[in-house]
Amino acid sequence: MSEILKQLEQVLEQRKQAVPDSSYVASLYAKGLNKILEKVGEESTEMILAAKDFSLEPKSDTLRQDLVNEVADLWFHSLVALVDQDVSVTEVLAVLERRFGLSGLEEKAARKS
């Protein structure tokens, strides 16, 4: 499942060297970190609103797809931010793997120590 994230990371890394008007991602990199983070914030808000709408009408296939699409947009732009900062998807996946099977309360307490 994480293979697509790794493949996407490779493409995003290549876009860092691309001419800004050659791709959407290359243009984001050219605009800088603030613009990338602005997009992450925008997509976060859109995902929250889509989740809220879906919670009010959980049988709606349209609202379900809206939520899935907004999460995909949020993940994508988060990956753009990670690649911009030279942080690997593998690092994030390693943290998730380490946390797997650990109670959220235990994991949060372990971070404080």
How would you describe the overall organization of this protein?
- The radius of gyration is 17 Å and the shape is globular.
- The longest helix is centred in the middle third of the chain and has 24 residues, at 33-56.
- The model has no long low-confidence stretch (mean pLDDT 93).
- The two termini are 32 Å apart.
- Helix 1 (3-15) crosses helix 4 and helix 3 runs antiparallel to helix 4 (61-84).
- The chain has helices at 3-15, 24-31, 33-56, 61-84, 89-99, 104-112.
- With 113 residues, it is mainly alpha-helical.
In short:
The protein has 113 residues and is mainly alpha-helical. It has helices spanning 3-15, 24-31, 33-56, 61-84, 89-99, 104-112. The longest helix is centred in the middle third of the chain and has 24 residues, at 33-56.
